[in-house]
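are you around this afternoon, could really use another pair of eyes. what follows is a protein written twice so to speak, once as letters and once as structure tokens for the fold. i want to understand how the tokens follow from the sequence so walk me through it. anything you notice is useful, everything is just below.
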Amino acid sequence: MAEHTSSSITIDAAPSEVMAVIADFDRYPEWTGEVKEAEVLAKDEQGRAEQVRLLLDAGAIKDDHTLSYTWTGPNEVSWSLVKSQMLRALDGSYSLAPLADGTRTEVTYQLTVDVKIPMLGMIKRKAEKVIIDRALAGLKKRVESAAQA
């Protein structure tokens, strides 16, 4: 089994507010930095994205890939790679845990990336960590600024 990288952050908002931002793929280019385009290709019976095409530009890594999403209850979403130009695998998840009185949320992001080009495991895990940390920081900023608006 491939090794994964994970990290957590606390956001000053309820889990439902955090998940609303995570599920709003059309707005990803506004806050993620690396995602230049996001297009929902299919939705489930509850209107949540099942397949999403993402155009990624993360400096050295530029890719056009499609992910399949699985929603587990109101506080967890996971995804896996359907197709990609550069990636062999891209599996991840967001898990949300309410804190205190439900006005704060601990968000855990887990990610496993496997590229088609050879790459040392140490370098790959460092890249995963950078992706996760940027995503969590962007998510926190987006959710908390929306909550204050």
Observations:
- The mean pLDDT is 87.
- The first strand starts at residue 5 and ends at 11.
- The CA atoms of residues 1 and 112 lie 10 Å apart.
